Write the structure tokens for this entry.
Amino acid sequence: MEVRNQPLTFVWKPLLIGAALVFLYSSVLTKLGQDWWTEDNYSHGLLIPFVIAYIVWNEFDALKMSVRNSNAAAGLMLIILAAIFLLIGSMAAILFAQRISLVMMIVGILVYFFGATIIKKLAVPFLLLLLAIPIPQLIFNKIAFPLQLLASRFADMGIGLVGIPVERYGNVIEILPKGAEQIVSLEVVEACSGIRSLVTLITLALILGYFTRERRGSYTQRWSELWANRDVVRTVVLMLTAVPIALLTNSLRVMITGVLAYYYGRATVEEGVWHDLSGSLVFIAALALLIGLNFALKRWSDGLDRMPSELAGFRSSSGNSPVSVRAVVTLFASIVLCGVFVNWFQYRGEMSVERRPLVEIPDRLGSWEQRNADIRFDEPTEKVLKATDYVMRDYYGPGKRLNLYVGYYASQRSGATYHSPLSCLPGTGWEMIEPELLQISTPAGKQLTVNRYVVKQGEHKEYLIYWYQGRGRSFANEFEDKFFTSVDSLTKRRSDGGMVRIMTPLGKDPVRSLTAAIDLTSHVADNIGEFLPD
């Protein structure tokens, strides 16, 4: 079919829309590029724009044939929704919402100009873009920690099979090196669990399946026909199989590390040459397994009947409609207006509030008394924490010691925000179990809802109580707090807030320990208002 020349080929139109997008998402794109450059889990994102550009260039003629009448109403709705996501994400420093907004904005622009059909043709590029967006740390840790436990469990089994005595406590493997007297502890962290290579392997599985497809139109059929297509099914199988491949190859890495530690001591396997080299070798092995599986699946599918020829190619449409100058200018103005609106809200000054520094929290709270100096983090930890102010100290009472941490952030618009225990503790080897919401009545008559967990590291267990507070609100749920941070940022010009955390060992009397933690919590809640202001 001969495709008529479209006005879209005039360079100024896409450049105009592109310039508007850069204006609206400049800070989002900058931070996303920095994460791709510095974050090992998503370094593959640096290549994704080039892969997407190649796919679009390679399929450009077919994409032009799929263009139908525009759907301005649906497109504008998506664009407005994307702008709302961007605004909420900017106000509450939710990077994931800001980045998903970018994807929604691109989808809305395409639907506005070309209708919804073209989105199906671009399903693979959009999926690649989504795979390059870092998921929220809270969700990341919910995936990473179970993988750490599985990797340590498989490694423990493997080390035991070769006759080496080994003990495992959660994600920590303990080995007594041959001829040594001191036990070596190997912690299976994120890098060794397979999580860092998992997203990259899933992305490579999608790219591998796409570029080794047998039929050009494999990914552009009707949704109901996709699951009857061998290329699509093979690609989905590859992406799903990337999970056990990443897990098993990294378990083998931990097992070999444990064997080397037994025969040659810990110094041989400390982070350094071996750690980096083994990580690279494991990734190469996983990729080789993925390629081998793809080859086997293609050979197996060769014996199956081919799809009917009428489903094998692109369904072209002769309903191509030119992109009018009026539509381009209208959309350009709308995006720029959104950019002005969002940037005005994001960068306008915030209300300054008076508060007392956290170090002035009373050293006596009820029957609990501080006896030692405040605890300070090291400089690297403080840089990660990015708190405006924080305090950490131990309180002592009748036969118990409780640790209090309070972190305060004067503004959360720029990305500095408190670190949820659900994100921090699993990353340092703590397992969080037995979650519960507690309703606490304070001596002053306040009602407070808090999170209560049992956290354990090996055989050691502690109670953890925490909640979020600021601007006259307190929440146990992080997402609820983020939502109202956005609301208050818009309506009160304030995004300040903090997190309060109390921990104490379970000891021999867990009931007494929990009662002590609740008692200190109630007294902290009554006194914290001057330090986390309403």
